[in-house]
Specification:
Oligomer: single chain
Distance between the termini: 19 Å
Radius of gyration: 19 Å
Largest sheet: 3 strands, antiparallel
Strand order of the largest sheet: 1-2-3
Strand content: 5-15%
Structural class: mainly alpha
Number of domains: 1
Number of helices: 6
Order of helices and strands: HEEHHEHHH
Shape: flat
Helix content: 40-55%
Length: about 150
């Protein structure tokens, strides 16, 4: 048994989803999100491929490299609009079309929905998916156990 099992418990479960309620939309739709980070291999690898492609354009030299890095950062929101339907959003609740009819979840429908979201609303979902604290199981019992060890 490891002396640091209490720390290992903090690892992110790559299969864990976290609900994100979009408060700004009437009906308060909920997106079920996987972690948008290293624990989500599909998402993380797609982001790496995107960054690598941007770096190849500049060959990593001087001002062009700095501009490419800035462009990659600015492109991050748009890139995530493409990546989230396939790698981060696993389902939803209360998403409706213009007529108020429920829309069944699919990657294609999700891509269309995310594309329609204003930047600030999508950024909220994005930040939620990136926050590791939304993907850690904690319980009050663990806190008590840790206090005994200090």
């Amino acid at each position: 048994m490891s002396r640091f099992s209490h720390v290992a418990k903090l690892k992110i479960d790559p299969a864990m989803t976290s609900p994100y309620t979009i408060e700004e939309i009437v009906g308060r739709p909920v997106l079920h999100l996987l972690h948008a980070g290293r624990s989500n291999h599909g998402y993380f690898n797609a982001r790496l491929r995107s960054a690598k492609a941007a770096a190849k354009k500049t060959k990593g030299k001087g001002k062009a490299a700095i501009e490419a890095a800035a462009e990659e950062e600015a492109y991050g929101l748009e890139r995530d609009r493409e990546l989230f339907p396939a790698h981060v959003v696993t389902g939803w609740e209360r998403v409706v079309d213009d007529d108020g009819a429920d829309v069944p979840f699919s990657v294609e429908a999700c891509a269309e929905f995310i594309e329609a979201l204003p930047d600030d609303i999508f950024e909220g979902a994005r930040l939620h998916a990136m926050a590791t604290s939304n993907y850690r199981e904690t319980s009050d019992g663990d806190d008590d156990e840790l206090e005994k060890n200090s």
